[in-house]
Specification:
Elements (H helix, E strand, L loop, with lengths): L7 H14 L3 H6 L2 E4 L2 E4 L2 E4 L5 E7 L3 H12 L3 E9 L10 E5 L6 H16 L4 E7 L3 H4 L9 H12 L5 H9 L8 H6 L3 E7 L22 H10 L8 H11 L17 E7 L1 H14 L3 E9 L3 H18 L6 E7 L13 H12 L6 E7 L11 E4 L3 H7 L4 H6 L3 H8 L2 E2 L10 E7 L1
Parallel strand pairs: 4-5, 4-7, 5-6, 7-8, 8-9, 10-11
Antiparallel strand pairs: 1-2, 2-3, 11-15, 12-13, 12-15, 13-14
Helix pairs in contact: 1-11, 7-9, 9-10, 12-13
Length: 443
């Protein structure tokens, strides 16, 4: 049982780490890929290993290297080759599959080059081959290309604009898919007629396959017009490089081919399997919390919205829970999802650290509530922190150090705030990614 002297910030971190452990790729891969004699059991399909000419392993995302490692452990010498693209610092040593590290959330030359190699491999595959594609969060930036008539620099500039505009990930990816030959079913089109199975770690609310990594191996319900509507909605039209805007406009006019839609026969030999999601992480976190002696409820597994609105909701939910429930022991509320933030300052941070600092301001006069906000990939924005944990003392301690939390919020500099004030959650790259987790403990 928990004692009143327990450090609830540390307890919240233990619960968060248990959530990460619940979605590490090794076990999740083994649940969906098995070799039995001369047969490969892959999701709902069986393949005769004697009849397969080649097995290729490709993919992209922060977890793709660790996913590929487990595939290598299971298939070994049977793998003919392949390549996965991970964020810098998320790689690991592989035997048969090449690992390329590239930039995220804005692509770079490594990502463009590795994507071109993956597309060439996919196009070379025949009907006698099997391609195993490993996708996880971050895949949209890592598996990247640019349309004819444009350049890598223009795509880099556009992605930087998109990730800072405050749009939801499905909106951003509608634009990305329509400026790509690999996203939005493009990889499946390149791989046809080879058999293709994607093993997917979901990092989007609702686990929509067409949104995860911009849906390279599934049909795309969005259109060129949807992409243009997003740019208009967020007042980005004048900021988009001219060649890219022209490409989208030509697509909307029917000059460019649309992404493949549901029912396209190219998907007949393709299957997409979600092997892990935020729900899996929350279930593991809940089990840990209960084991530590807390009452624990998974309150919301599709947390979305602007960080300022979400911060208000989190604190109000905690206060309402304290008011309406007779707390015989501490209560833990778990949230999972992905918030949005429109960045207007030039500071250093990420959505989880910004959310935590907003929440700290709201908790100043409400002792006994601890809130942790962190990303399951271990890196929040362009920082080495997963997120931060706060309580009613966070702001007071900062003020004692002559730090003004409001100024850090205004400049979007939450990383520097927590670096000085304390409260960072530092895990290092976890090599998995199923969105974010919020842990609230109410004493």
């Amino acid at each position: 049982m928990l004692q009143s002297s327990m450090n609830y910030q540390k307890i919240a971190e233990q619960i968060f780490l248990a959530g990460i452990d619940g979605v590490l790729p090794d076990k999740l891969i083994r649940d969906h890929l098995r070799v039995v004699g001369d047969e490969l059991m892959l999701g709902r399909r069986r393949y005769s290993l004697k009849r397969l000419a080649n097995i290729y392993v490709i993919g992209a995302g922060k977890a793709s290297a660790l996913m590929a490692l487990e595939v290598e452990n299971l298939l070994g010498w049977r793998i003919s080759g392949g390549e996965v693209i991970v964020k810098y610092g998320h790689g690991c040593a592989l035997q048969s599959v090449r690992v390329t590290e590239a930039n995220h959330p804005v692509p770079d030359v490594n990502g463009f080059a590795a994507t071109a190699r993956i597309m060439r491999l996919a196009q070379s595959a025949t009907r006698s081959d099997l391609i195993i594609c490993l996708l996880s969060g971050g895949g949209s930036a890592l598996l990247t290309d640019f349309p004819e008539g444009s350049s890598p620099d223009e795509m880099i500039r556009l992605n930087d604009i998109l990730v800072k505009c405050g749009a939801r990930i499905e909106e951003i990816n509608a634009v990305r898919k329509h400026l790509s030959k690999v996203k939005g079913g493009g990889l499946a089109r390149a791989a046809d007629p080879a058999a293709l199975t994607s093993l997917v770690l979901s990092d989007v609310p609702g686990d929509s396959l067409d949104v995860i990594a911009s849906g390279p191996t599934t049909s795309d319900p969005t259109t060129y017009q949807d992409a243009l509507a997003l740019l208009d909605r967020y007042h980005l039209v004048s900021s988009v490089p001219g060649n890219l805007l022209q490409y989208l406009q030509e697509g909307a006019a029917g000059i460019r081919p649309e992404t493949p839609k549901a029912g396209d026969p190219l998907f007949i030999r393709t299957q997409n399997l979600i092997i892990g999601s935020n729900r899996h992480a929350l279930a593991a976190a809940q089990k840990k919390a209960i084991g530590l002696g807390l009452d624990c409820l998974i309150y919301d597994d599709e947390l979305q919205g602007d960080v300022s609105v979400v911060a208000e909701r989190l604190v109000q939910t905690a206060l309402q829970t304290r008011k309406t429930r007779r707390l015989r022991k501490p209560v833990c509320l778990l949230f999972g999802g992905e918030t949005t933030v429109r960045v207007t300052g030039d500071g250093l941070g990420g959505r989880n650290q910004h959310l935590a600092l907003l929440t700290a301001q709201l908790l100043q006069h409400h002792p006994g509530i601890t809130v942790l906000c962190a990303g399951t990939d271990g890196t929040d924005g362009p920082t080495d922190a997963a997120g931060a944990v706060v309580n009613s003392q966070t702001v007071a301690c900062a003020l004692d150090k002559a730090m003004d939390p409001a100024a850090y919020l205004q400049s979007f500099n939450a990383y520097c705030f927590f670096h000085k004030a304390g409260g960072h959650i530092l895990t290092g790259p976890t090599r998995t990614n199923v969105m974010d987790i919020v842990v609230i403990i109410i004493e």
